[in-house]
Amino acid sequence: IPLHKINREPRNYHEFVKTVTEAHNSLQRFLVLQKSGVQEVLKNNLNAAYYGEISLGTPLQNFSVVFDTGSSNLWVPSSSCYFSLACWNHHYYKRSKSSTYIKDDSPLSIAYGTGEVEGFLSTDTLTINTLKVANQTFGEITSMSRKPFREAKFDGILGLGYPSIATGHVVPPVYNMVNQKLIDRPIFSFYLNRNPKETPGGELIFGGINEERVQNDTLNNPIPISSQRYWQFRMDGVNTLTGGNWCENGCDAIADTGTSLIIGPPKDILGIFKTLKATVEGPFAAVDCKAVPTLPDIVFKINARSYTLEPEDYILRLDKGGVEICMLGFSTLSGNNIPWILGDVFLGKFYTVFDFGNNTVSFGQLK
């Protein structure tokens, strides 16, 4: 699948902050290919969202969707979405044009924190690359809030979380792929390309692993999922080799492809900002770009193994009126019991395999 560049380089500071702030607000929702390996190529949108193409119906109606491990429903705008401006600049599903459409009409409402979508359920054939999933139930959205959807570069969301968090008890697409024997193994794997100058922006493989991208012997540490809702597991700790320690005595963490940064509890994240001598602006922080080479590695200890981010992995280089800004890829949310959310800044360093047969997630070293 060919990809288009979405943003000029370097990325714009104000646009990035706006995009991430909207995504952040939506995160408060915790309180959205051939057998053994169809590659769904993902577009890298400002590193704040990776998305790819799917189709619904017969003949095919095409949509771009975020593949989101933090939610479990599939939805796209409906041709009945007359009154939401957010629908107008996106593709919408026309049930009258599909010979494989099956009526359902159960109401659907999903709240994402900054915004919400409402509509009803319908059933049709879902096509992802060469995979054809029969009788996939999805949301036809008739009303969506202006933020964050009006300016979103994607039409809808395809959730890759567990069925337990699916609104309306809808079977998520990956489970239908297994039930219909479209994929050999109950897994999907992500590669997210953190270099916005390169294409593709990344890839998602249903049912397999791209062994050309991962050092195979590094996928031998499957991390048990502690709660079959999100892709949540226990993390042993986060530290620098120069003395900073966070997530002491262990903490909960969630692997979330729908989040751009690494989110953590206020106490821990502010501790990281202080250790890195960063200038804090609200939930974000930046450092002097000249200091980047002197910053420490940050080590995530998970299942008795160390996963290390070097400074260039957790620094986002943005443009602010012709001046380069070095923003930290860490942020925090207000509230108590905030889990760590390992978004694209973390996931982009590794090859991630989500195994819903064995209920594990694995982080492999990229080649």
Automatic annotation (TrEMBL):
One Pfam family recorded for the sequence: Asp
Covalent S-S links between cysteines: C81-C87, C247-C251, C289-C326
Key words, A-Z: Aspartyl protease, Disulfide bond, Hydrolase, Protease
Top-level division of the source organism's lineage: Eukaryota
Record domain Peptidase A1: where: 50-364
Chain coiled-coil ranges: none
UniProt keyword annotation of Cell membrane present: no
Active site, per annotation: D68, D256
Classification via SUPFAM superfamilies: Acid proteases (SSF50630)
InterPro entries linked: Aspartic_peptidase_A1 (IPR001461), Aspartic_peptidase_AS (IPR001969), PEPTIDASE_A1 (IPR033121), Peptidase_aspartic_dom_sf (IPR021109)
GO MF annotation: an example: aspartic-type endopeptidase activity
GO biological process, one term: proteolysis
A single Gene Ontology CC term: lysosome
Record family assignment: Belongs to the peptidase A1 family.
Protein name per UniProt: Putative aspartyl protease
Organism: Rhodnius prolixus (Triatomid bug)
